[in-house]
Design brief:
It contains 17 helices and eight strands. It is an alpha+beta fold. α6 packs antiparallel against α7. The radius of gyration is 41 Å and the shape is rod-shaped.
């Protein structure tokens, strides 16, 4: 191998002949330092030596990036490794591996930092879109609307009264990164929201805990959140007491309540309140009843159900006559000129009826409890009462067994007759539809 002292001119002018695959120029100063060129590519500094009896060759770099002095120093350093019994190729591979490892670590760190920057507000819309309660295919419209209101930014002109709406209780949490949703953060938030309304803050907390559970079930969010953050003792100890309501119409109050409802000027609200008592249905289930789901021929009602999608119950004689008196304004049985097109809040009407009956502290949901108690007093089986009300199936004293609509019919007629008797209503079952006798 002929050697020559490298100079800038010699390095720059070194070329490979077109009829050769490669050409070499060797330096006479640094052992093993050479310059390799191919017809198509630019020259590159190389190092060539013998390691354990075998020739090895490594590329140092492009002359545009390496000066002659730097290339000589690198060649000498590589030769020293061989003299020490080390294979410079292994060290180069190790360096490349370390570089790749560091690059991967840097990328993972960047991804982690990006993930940690994800806020509740970033994920909340996806929760509303993809989340759902247990055993359900989707949110109930009412609950979804509540979730949106709870996280609303506020600042919208009030529909009633002056001023603008305040932010929803969950809205302050939207700015938090998922990793910052800790027990301490939620405690501070809960105490702040509790000053305005402890019950609203408690309801918002229950909703937000559902969001945390949903995040915990998603691989991309699971490591970023603490699903138990909302169960901090300091928060749970300050939750308002969950007082179980027991209000229901007593037998002696039934006639007065019925008379008060009968005297309401809003006939739709009057029929709606009576229907709640006669069916034991939840207020939203009955409010959304469509005419298409009222079968006057075969005397059946199909209503929305909290546990199942729908449930079908018998349409009892008096209730059939009552519904027949209502005008068919739109698709809803209990129609309203409101935007929803149906009755949505009968509390004001119920309050007037209660005032007339000199009753206090009676809620609309209490009518559902009243149906259950009056059904027992009428002698109907507990399982039949539960099925009509849409209670989740459970063991009862008689042993729960689903009944057909026809099997339920005599029991619901028995309950209706008992309620009408207690209310003092004279009713002839085969009277002309839409003609009801007045209360005594």
């Amino acid at each position: 191998m002929a050697k020559i002292g490298f100079t800038a001119g010699r390095v720059e002018g070194f070329k490979c002949a077109a009829d050769k695959t490669q050409a070499f120029l060797w330096d006479d100063t640094a052992p093993g330092l050479g310059l390799r060129a191919t017809p198509a590519g630019k020259p590159a500094y190389i190092f060539q030596s013998v390691y354990h009896g075998k020739t090895i060759r490594l590329t140092i770099g492009n002359p545009d990036a390496w000066s002659i002095a730097q290339a000589r120093d690198k060649a000498k350093a590589l030769q020293r490794l061989i003299d020490d019994g080390k294979d410079p190729r292994d060290l180069k591979r190790d360096a490349l591996t370390e570089k790749a490892r560091k690059a991967a670590a840097d990328a993972a760190l960047a991804a982690s930092d990006a993930a940690k920057a994800v806020t509740v507000g970033d994920v909340w819309p996806r929760y509303l879109e993809e989340g759902k309660p247990k055993r359900r295919d989707a949110w109930k419209p009412g609950y979804l609307a509540s979730l949106k209101v709870m996280a609303a930014a506020g600042g919208v002109k009030k529909k009633r009264g002056e001023g603008v709406t305040r932010p929803g209780p969950i809205h302050p949490l939207l700015a938090l990164a998922l990793g910052d949703v800790t027990e301490d953060a939620l405690q501070i938030w809960f105490e702040s929201e509790g000053k305005a309304s402890k019950h609203q803050a408690a309801r918002a907390l229950m909703m937000f805990r559902g969001f945390l559970r949903w995040c915990a079930a998603r691989p991309e969010y699971r490591k970023l959140i603490d699903r138990d953050a909302g169960k901090a003792p300091a928060i749970l100890e300050n939750l308002p007491r969950n007082i179980r309501r027991t209000d229901a119409i007593e037998a002696a109050q039934l006639a007065g309540w019925w008379q008060g409802v009968e005297q309401l000027s809003n006939r739709t609200a009057s029929a709606y309140l009576k229907a709640l008592l006669l069916t034991g249905a939840r207020k939203e289930e009955l409010a959304g009843l469509n005419w298409a789901n009222v079968d006057f021929q075969w005397r059946k009602l199909t209503i929305a159900d909290k546990v199942e999608q729908t449930r079908t119950i018998p349409l009892t004689p008096y209730l059939a006559q009552l519904l027949a008196t209502l005008k068919r304004v739109n698709e809803y049985v209990f129609a309203s000129p409101s935007k929803a097109g149906r009755i949505s809040d009968a509390r004001a009407s119920h309050a007037k009826a209660l005032q007339c009956a000199a009753m206090d502290g009676m809620t609309i949901h209490g009518l559902r409890r009243s149906f259950s108690l009056l059904g027992e007093a009428a002698g109907a089986p507990a399982g039949a009462i539960a099925q009509v009300m849409g209670h989740k199936p459970s063991a009862t004293a008689e042993g729960y067994r689903p009944r057909s609509v026809d099997a339920l019919r005599p029991y619901l007629k028995q309950i209706e007759a008992h309620i009408l008797a207690g209310a003092g209503v004279q009713f002839v079952e085969d009277a002309e539809p839409g003609k009801l006798h007045a209360v005594k």
